[in-house]
Amino acid sequence: MTEFSSLFVVSVISVLAPLLAYVIPKRIIPETVLLVVMGMLAGPYVLGFIELSDSIKLLTELGLAFLFLLAGYEIEVKELKGKRGKAALIGWLATFAIAFTMALIIPNTSGYIEQFALAIAFSATALGTLIPILKERGLIKTNVGLDVLAHGTFGELGPILAMALLLSVRSPWETVLILALFFAVSIVMAIIPVKARAAGSKLVELIHLKSETTAQTTVRVTVMVMVSLVLLAYVFDLDVVLGAFAAGFIIRIANPAGREELEQKLDGLAFGFLIPLFFITSGASINVGAVLEAPFALILVVFGLLAARAVPVYFSTYFTEDAESYTSRDRLTVALYSTTSLPIIVAVTHVATETGTMGPRVASILIAGGALSVLLMPLLASISYKAADAHPIDRMSERLRRFRSSRPVQNTNAAKRKIRKR
């Protein structure tokens, strides 16, 4: 009965959050932030309305899997092969180097596993969280939006691979071998539907034919692929986000042009309940007392994200597509959006706390910092966009020029004669 009570509270919050986000003036607070904050208030550390039982945790894992499934589905391979993708890759590598350097100088870390976990957390971008925000603001098809998607792709793919390689308790060669096997199976699963579609397979036609009936075959096939790769990741002792992300990528390869009806159904299934549940329970897992005891640490997390992620992304935009047409506004907007992070932070803190290399206090502060980045970074990006449009420096220069030109010009010789008479 406790599980259904918790689910009832989760369902109420999932309804209230978007309504509150809509009525707040200028919609400055994203729905995701409200889900996390309301989950934190309803969680076991404050009001105790939500109990994080094993059943709730299983649904949370499923919500996390769907979030990364949709993130993997949004990847445009052709965009990653060009200058935009190369710039984003260089930006992420620089980010990870800065983040790891920062992790090395942080005092009281419990070893290299926690240092790697901190570096991964500071190098992440919440692509799945950003996509709805970019769509709402009409940026998704612009150069700025495409750059954010490219940086977001590597900001999720890079940390996912780093988690598998650096947070594993196995030896390095065993980890590499297991990853190679996982990717080999994933490649085979990606090739099969492409070959079947090219051969005009009757099975593929039947799947699409039954997709609009009660069978909902395309949705069921997508879920089957996701669960299969998540299970494979679990068998190989990898994180579920790697399997879910690979599943989304495979589904996109099978439908390179996309299928609007499938996307709508997946959005309804994922954003209707499972993804909100993930964010709510992520908030419920935050130890509010630990965060309030160390507000300075929370501020450091936000500034750490800016230093490690925003700065390299800003400079990497000088090497992207149409870089010569970019303004400082565009570069700053891409950098701030790319600093938005939360799901990877939740995932990496989960792995680190499960292995006992990170305490719940540090994990709570990191998750709270990630939630704060979801609030601040899109807001700052919006403000910087408008402020840059106003050209404040140019306006100040113009006012100064007008002031100087309006001052009366004294006749130097007349002034000298006045001085002599005195």
Automatic annotation (TrEMBL):
Keywords: Antiport, Ion transport, Membrane, Transmembrane, Transmembrane helix, Transport
GO BP of this protein: proton transmembrane transport
Residue span(s) of domain Cation/H+ exchanger transmembrane: 13-380
Annotated InterPro entries: Cation/H_exchanger_TM, Na+/solute_symporter_sf
GO annotations of cellular component type: membrane
GO molecular function: antiporter activity
The keyword Glycosyltransferase belongs to this UniProt entry's keyword annotation: no
Origin superkingdom: Bacteria
Lipid bilayer topology: Multi-pass membrane protein
Membrane-spanning ranges: 6-25, 32-50, 56-75, 87-106, 112-134, 146-169, 175-196, 269-290, 296-320, 332-353, 365-385
Cell location: Membrane
Family that this chain belongs to: Belongs to the monovalent cation:proton antiporter 2 (CPA2) transporter (TC 2.A.37) family.
Stated name of the protein: Transporter, CPA2 family
Protein's organism: Gleimia coleocanis DSM 15436
Lineage of the species this protein comes from: Bacteria, Bacillati, Actinomycetota, Actinomycetes, Actinomycetales
